[in-house]
Each structure stands twice: as C-alpha cells, then as structure tokens.
Fold each of these.
Amino acid sequence: MPWTFLFVSLLGAALAWNTYHPRGGRYSAAPSFFLGWLTAELALHHIFWQALATVAFVYGGALSAWPGKLGLVLALGSWVALGLHYLRGFEARGVIERALDEALPGGYVERIAPKLRAELPEDIEWGPILRPFPIREPSVECTRNIVFARAAAQDLKLDVYRPRDGRGPGGADRCPVFFYIHGGGWVIGTKDTQGLPIVNHLASQGWFCVNVNYRLSPGATFPDHLVDLKRALHWVRTEGPAWGADPNFVAVAGGSAGGHLASLMALTQNDAEYQPGFEDTDTSVQAAVPIYGVYDFVEPGKTWGHDDLGPFLEKHVLKTTRDEDPKAFEKASPLHRIGPDAPPFFVVHGASDTLVPAPEAREFVRAFRERAMAPIAYAEIPGAQHAFELFPSVRSQITRSGIELFLAWAWSEHRTGSAV
C-alpha cells in the first residue's frame, strides 16, 4: 500500500508539473495539451478526487512506511500547486481589460448602450464551476439539428440558442447574431460538444446564437468547409428574422480550426468564389472572435517548432501540395487575406497552448494592425491551454465576459452607425 500510494502521488505531481511546464514538441504537444487542459481547468475537481483517494490510502495503512509518507507530502504539494494555478485564472481579467483598452477607442465602455452595459456580468458563477456538466441555461431555448443546406448527399445542420422571452440585449426588439464554429483540426468535432458555455451564456443575455456543423475532411476539400459556413450564414440572413434574429449584425467566432474558419468568414466577405449558387447573399460579418486559431497555411508551423501541420494540410485538407498550388494555401490563410475593410477582431489565445502556440496569433495580430483599418484586440490568457474555454472555469468565465464586452461595444457601434 505505501508504494502504491507513492506511485499515485507521483502521477498527481506529474499532472501538476505539466500545468506549469507544458511541452510543445512534435511528440509531446498533444499529450501535454490533453493532460494539462483537463487538469488546469478542472483543478478543483482533481484536488477533490485526489483527496478522497488519499483518505482511502491513509485508512488502508499507506503511512506505515516511508514511501507512503513521501507520497502524502507529494500529494499535499500537488494540491497547493494546482490550487495556485487555478487562481491564476483571475489574471485573465487584467489581461483582457488591457487588451480592450489598448485596441478600442477611448471611453469605449461608455459608448455601449446604457441598458446593455448594466446587464454585462461581473461576478464569477461558482455553480457551473463546481458542476460543469451539463451545460445549460434555464432561460435559453435550444432548437437542434436544423437543416440549413445539403451538400455531397449530406444534410448540413445547425443548432439555434435564443432567449425564451425573445428579447435582445438591453431589452432590444431583436437579437444580434453570434455565429459559432467548432474546431477539431478540420477533420473531427461537432456543434454538440463545442462552444456550449459561451453560446448558452450569450443566448441567456439576449443573443441569437447558432452553433454550426460543416463538412469535414478528408471527405471535404478546402474550401468546402468555408462554403458550408457561408451557406449557414445565408440561412441566418434569410430565415433568422422569423426566429427573432437581427440579421444586420453577425459576430462570428470559433475555436482552433473554427478560429481559422471564423477569421476567413470575416476576411472573405461577399466573395463570390465561396458562395456558389448564392452569390447575391450578404455574407459580411460585423465582428470576429477567433479563439486559439490557426492563421497561416503558407508557412504552417513556422512558430510551432515543427512542421507536422504542413503535410497534414496537404494530404487531408487541401489535397494538394504547396509546390503544386501555392495560391491555394495563401487563399486558405487568414494571415494572407487581411485587407483594409476587415471588421473589428478580438483574438484570444492561451499563453500555454501547446497545440497552436501563441506566436501564431501574435503574427496575425501584427499583420492585421499593419493592413486593416478596424481595431484588433489581442488577449493572451496566462496559464491557458488549447480549448481552455470549453469548461466553465474561472479563466473561461472571465474570458467569456471579455468577449461579451467586446461584442456589446461592436453591436452598440453598429446600432448608432458609428465608424469602427
């Protein structure tokens, strides 16, 4: 029993160590992400179950020999380390405030409609933190699996989340649209498991939220993914008003591959190449929030320390090589699609992301500031791994509140006709 307890304690210590020192190498990035993601955002739950296990070990005689006593010291140290790392989630508030203050016009908070500003959340909700699943809001009505198009003999579906009382933020008659795109490396993922904390929350605050599925590779070849998403936007613009949506304001967001596609949605507005059969539809968006996105296909992995992404894109996503068709990779790269008419962006990335390292986002933000007229805010969240916002943790909730503040500003600017 003492040796078993020591072994279990060593595992707990290794998990805690990984949250502070994630590994981003070719072979270590994925396991470091997965273990760090689950440990960091669910740290309170890890401490709880490890404490229960420790009580059981102690009751079973684990402290009868020195390995067990060493195991107890390691366990206690791991809990302190996890707790301190979890508290780092509060650092996100200062980072986000600085990002918005630096990017948006002076006095931007006062430019938000007064009723809307009064409704913006400030407090942490501890209930969802302690009981992270299921993710739902009683004030939200969810309609699932609405078929918005058909492509390659496949029904394309989206979910609608909207306030039950039908009122928009600040009591508006119609609800602005929040359009969320799931990630999964362009080959996996679904609307059923991603984006749920933010779409449920925003819908409870009066937003009309759509969570969209699209065709996945290797069956789909880029730009099929983007075309499908623009078809979903066509549905929002034509059918959304009957559901209470304001089709004149659409904010697009997504995580990882969804962040890549959300950026392209914002940077290829009304591009007929990606609107076959619905060329006349307005596919403009008024704001974009890519979260831990991928921005460069021309030099994939330039800031990653390895080039595993390049062969993957060539084989599974674009199905051509950079030598054969360099233009295809350029057109698929948000970094190379930035123009002066881009809408306002709020780029969010985890400082500890091992799957898509933060320098990828920094380079996109730098280029955007050089080429675009609209503001771009960049928040690099301390201690955050890839996919950190999929759990309703302290870090996730503070980040969500920052995104909501940015969207409230963008929508208020749109309603008053102010230039952004």
Amino acid sequence: MALQIALEDTFGDIVKKAMRGTGTTVAQVERATGIREADLAAWLRDEGAPDDVQARAIAKVLHLDPGKLADCAAQRFYPPPIHRDDVAHHPHDPHPSNGYVFFLEGGRRSALLDPAGIPQNLLRVLRDGDYHLQYILITHKHADHCDATADVAAAFPNAQIVMHKADAFAIGDLAKNALPVRDGEDLPFGDGAKIRMLHTPGHTDGSSCYVVASIAFTGDTLFCASVGGAYGDKSTYGDILNGIRSKLFTLPDDTVLMPGHGPPSTVALEKAHNPFF
C-alpha cells in the first residue's frame, strides 16, 4: 500500500487547532508577535503563509515547535511513500477518511479498521479478499469512522466489534456486544499475533488506537505532521498531546502510523516533523 494523498492539515489548520487548544485568540497572537491581525486571519484561511521568522514567532506563542511550524508554512515536509503488504487501504466514500484492512495468514484472517462510508464498498473489499474477518476495530464515534458498522456486522456476524465504551453509543444496539477497549491490553489475533489497544482520549473521550505488527492505526488522534482537533466532552487538547507522547511516541521509531485522514507516517518522522511536539 502506497498512499500519495495530501496532508490532512494545512498551516492554517494547525494554528487554529493550537489556538483553540490553548485558548489563544488572534488578537493575543498579534499582541505577542507584532504580526497584523489581518495577516493572521488570512493565513488561518490558508490565504498566503508567513515567512520563517513569522511562523517561528507564532509557534512560540502557541507552544508549538518553531522550526517544524516554519517547515509546515513553507510546505517543506511530505512523508516518503510507505508500503505494507499486510494492509489494504480504502477511502471511505463519500467521507474524506481512511479505512484499512489488516490481514494475517496469507490474507485469510483480517481486522477491519473503522467501518464507514458506503457499506457495499466495504463489503466488496472484504469479499474480494476472501477474508475471515475476526475484528471490527473502531477508533472513535464520529460518523466518518463508524457509520457502516451495522451493515458490516450483519454481513460478518462472527466478527467481534471493539470500541471504547465512552464512544460506543454511536453504534446503537451493537454497543451491547462490543468488546470495550482496555488501555494497554492485547487482543489475540490469529495464530500467536496480538492487537494492542490504546485509549488516547481528546479528539473524543473514547478515541483509541490499535497497534499490530509494527503498525499503529491512529484514527483521528495523530495525523502526519498534525493531531486531531480536541472535541472531547471530558477529555482535552492536553490529553491528545499527552497520549501521543506517552503511548505512541514510546513505540519503536520505525512503527508505521496509519491515520484516519491523510497519508501514513512513522513514529520517527512525527518526532522529527510534527509541530505539536
């Protein structure tokens, strides 16, 4: 699988997320940096971009990495192509989100990440691969990651749904039989393989990541060169950053990160290029 798709977040997206997360207004950035409010507002709309000095000044106010944010403003970073033979990627039409199938045993045993979009497309992916679907793994409650759960579960009634209890209401009655995510625990997968469950709240209260065979499926917690927006009812922007630092960035540097939006990355690339860290 080699994904060549646009980064999920622009310079404006990143700055807006950091401003919202830190409670910083455009006027406060102007006062701290001397950059005109009109220029800041335009950059937030992705109309033009700051130079390196301006980007670094903005980063310091928002507790972002100055050099990495300057690289973002100048569009100097894009990840190299990343290919995994044991993962099939599919876009969630009509949603702008990523779905994945991870498979073992020559493709015979599989786990589906985030059933969303047009159900027939998902079922075609699974049936064309002749997969034995063992798990339906859901990263969080938003519709563009779980709105096809009922259709996939009906077609594969023996597949175990896995979802954090804080978000499971989004799949309706299926939540009653869903296996709740237990942070740090492993699910048996095939002959000797395991899926590590990580609770990484902040984007939503139940946001979770799944780690298997040196891959972390990160949902909307971590994107290439960015993070998910903080929309939790109880969890916060700080929780997102802390979860990434303590649970994802402690994985080996060569761990492949497959997010819910945008291209794949690695732990090493995110440590080197993500302006939030």
